[in-house]
User: Which sequence fits this backbone?
């Protein structure tokens, strides 16, 4: 299994990385960690319309080299601190470039969405308040839908201001459990068993059509 971890924290030894490290420890497969915050320097989509007609992107930067690797991966982890209620800006810029996949589906009709991949979301937050995760989960569901990925889990370590993520036993255990669930999902897929049981947002494009196909597969 090939897993790509998109990290949106500037802190290499911070709270988010503590959870990523725990998750990676339990994953059976090849893991590539990409620090989107300061390694890639990817610009946001400029809505130039290029990808409505052609695959790829008109902007030539760190994203171009990575698109093939993204499409070849089996699973994705988005790992970010919460900034102003959502994932960090560099991750949002980076993910806006996935518009080329969406345009493949809608305009070029050269890609299909069949929820063949898996995704895990890891987030750390300084504080905690009622329904703080709502807006970020909508964004993350949207990103995973562009990556063709059903969701294994959303994992949070909250109140890192008072409880460091590396001491948050609940969050660390959830990282371990999510990694094991991901391993099982991949094993099911490899063995030709039914594997389209992961959660995905019912609001996304083509979902009805795909849900019908999935059930036929069963
Ligand atoms: C610019 C900025 C914005 C932040 N916004 C939020 C926020 O909206 N909600 C929250 O709970 N914590 C917020 N925090 C705190 C971080 O989410 C928290 O410290 C996080 O655990 C840091 O993770 P890291 O060590 O991986 O960078 C913010 C921190 C920064 C620097």
Assistant:
């Amino acid at each position: 299994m090939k897993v790509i971890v998109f990290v949106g924290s500037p802190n290499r030894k911070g709270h988010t990385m503590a959870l990523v490290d725990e998750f990676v420890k339990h994953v059976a497969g090849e893991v590539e960690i990409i620090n989107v915050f300061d390694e890639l320097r990817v610009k946001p989509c400029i809505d130039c319309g290029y990808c409505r007609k052609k695959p790829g992107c008109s902007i030539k930067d760190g994203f171009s080299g990575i698109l093939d690797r993204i499409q070849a991966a089996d699973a994705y982890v988005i790992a970010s601190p919460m900034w102003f209620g959502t994932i960090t800006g560099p991750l949002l810029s980076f993910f806006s470039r996935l518009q080329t996949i969406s345009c493949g589906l809608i305009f070029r009709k050269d890609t299909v969405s069949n929820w063949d991949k898996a995704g895990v979301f890891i987030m750390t937050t300084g504080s905690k308040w009622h329904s703080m995760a709502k807006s970020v989960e909508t964004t993350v569901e949207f990103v995973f839908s562009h990556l063709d990925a059903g969701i294994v889990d959303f994992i949070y370590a909250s109140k890192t201001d008072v409880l460091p993520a590396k001491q948050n036993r609940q969050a660390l255990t959830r990282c371990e459990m999510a990694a094991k669930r991901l391993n099982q999902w991949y094993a099911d897929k490899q063995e030709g068993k039914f594997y389209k049981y992961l959660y995905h947002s019912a609001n996304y494009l083509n979902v009805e059509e795909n849900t019908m196909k999935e059930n036929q597969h069963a």
Notes: The two ends are 23 Å apart (CA to CA). The beta strands are 2-7, 30-35, 75-81, 117-124, 149-157.
